[in-house]
Amino acid sequence: MNALLDPIVNATLDALRAGGVWAIFGLMILESCCIPAPSEVIMLFAGYLVWAGDATMFRVVLAGVAGNVIGSSLCWAIGAYGGRPLIDSWGKYVRLNHHHVELAERFFSRRGALTVFVARMLPIVRTFISLPAGIAKMRFAPFVALTTLGCIPWVWGLAEIGYRLGDNWEDARETLHRFDYVVVLAIVVGIGWLVMRGRRRRRASTTVDDS
Q1: At what angle do helices 83-90 and 98-111 cross, to 10 degrees?
Q2: Can you tell me the distance from the alpha carbon of 42 to that of 21, in angstroms, rounded to the nearest whole number?
Q3: Residue 32 contacts by C-beta under 8 Å, 6 or more apart in sequence?
Q4: What is the CA radius of gyration of the chain?
Q5: What is d(CA 171, CA 158) in angstroms, rounded to the nearest whole number?
Q6: pLDDT band at 56, cuts 50/70/90?
Q7: Are residues 172 and 165 in contact, defined by beta-carbon separation less than 8 angstroms?
Q8: CA angle in degrees (0–180, nearest 5) for 83-85-89
Q9: pTM of the model
């Protein structure tokens, strides 16, 4: 595990051990507001709590989804009413990764509203997609609906993995962390391919017009 992430992960685990289901809810709000609180750790540990008999699957999934939707809604509002200038001015104080924000913006610009649903099931992009949705003034009701539908499989899936692994829930953490980089690489390659295809189309169109 990256040494830079150790303090964040350890603080997250301390909060989860102390607060249980309420900590899941609060930390998922923070995670969805682009504040470093890894959802993989949160929901894997939530599944472990179910395995240990300290919570039910319904309660941890409800807490995770509710926190995700509330945090995402706050992030949407920041994008909608503050825009990119606010993000650029204040993002550094919550360790907001501007590269990830730009990645989410490009991702959103290609597919619009549907991206909100798809992105909720993708590592890294899922955390930041609310900002470009807000900046683009996507309607709030569809945003909440797509966010809810999209985050349920992610939240429930991680909790289920944690539950199945029991005491060994941490084994899945490193695997998921490595998967993050694969997803980001795939997105970058996909965006590059779309850009190249757009350029070819423009060149072809210019050639036809000239002739």
Answers
A1: 160
A2: 10
A3: 67, 68, 69, 70, 71, 72, 74, 75, 127, 130
A4: 19
A5: 12
A6: very high
A7: yes
A8: 125
A9: 0.70
